[in-house]
UniProtKB/TrEMBL annotation:
Residue span, Gfo/Idh/MocA-like oxidoreductase N-terminal domain: 7-125
Domain of life: Bacteria
Stored InterPro entries: Gfo/Idh/MocA-like_OxRdtase_N, Gfo/Idh/MocA_oxidoreduct, NAD(P)-bd_dom_sf
Record's protein name: Gfo/Idh/MocA family oxidoreductase
Organism: Paenibacillus piri
A GO molecular-function descriptor: nucleotide binding
TM ranges: none
Amino acid sequence: MANSPVKLGLVGLGGHMADNLLLRLMSLPADISAVCDTNLERLALVKGKYRIANSYTDYRNMLENEELDAVICSVDPQVHYEAAKACLLAGKHVFAEKTPCHTVEQAEELAELQRTTNCYAMVGFNRRFATAYMMAADIARRPEFGGVHMYQAKYHASEYGSKSSFIFNHIVNHLDLARYLVGELKITHVEHFVLDERRFGYNLTFIAESGTIGNIQSASVQHMTFPVERVELIGNGRNVIVDNLKNIAYNRPGQLNGGGEHAALADQRDTLIWNVNQGLHTSFTYLGYDLELQEFIRSAAERRTPVVHMEDTLKTIRLVHQFHSLIQ
């Protein structure tokens, strides 16, 4: 299978699959053999547009009738859990969008199935594959950075459907990202406010096993027309800031303002900056969707463990439930 396209089935053809995932799959060594959705109009549209051979309204029928190597699922946590379980039991690798399940018990069950079936469930935490966050992780692990001592993040949104969906579909991203950047952590305190049933906010503090202390602020009272995401990692005499996924600045001990008549940038001292090329308006690789799908397809082809798998995701699900318990 490593030298031939991975035979894929897709479950859920809504906006995220259609707008973010499907187009990216076109450039990968994968053959989309079948698609599944309960919406017949959407099913016919995607099948025709991408010339996909077979379509289904029940993923169980798809698994039974198709010879697939892997499945990508993007619906909701309950379907993600049920479909991932069915895929693993059928001997298929599965990519489930976040959040992959509702409960710790479901996550533990999927992790156990992963071990016993030798197939893997990968979860779509795209920020682990986002360009700026990957750069930040690399910088933070350099000896010169001196370790991450403090972590500060904001991750806001506009009005949300409910507190529960905000926690399990939104905040979960930055709990997982914090684990990726500073290691395993424990939430120590949560404060929150509520304006109404769709507008609310949270401030959580944590301490990591590495000694990093940090906080994450996340609320549904912002507007999506301006930047709503920022992360700062504070090291020893330097920091790295990721602003809205598109920009990263690595501030190092540099020269004082001015610099004299022959001022010049100091290669090893002054600030390093990277940002997205806005002129390439059709390229959104920096968001991480391309690389996470590439990792899933490659791991399925090579029958190896993907870098984000269910045993690792279980730790994030436990964090989400710890967070939820602290605000009850």
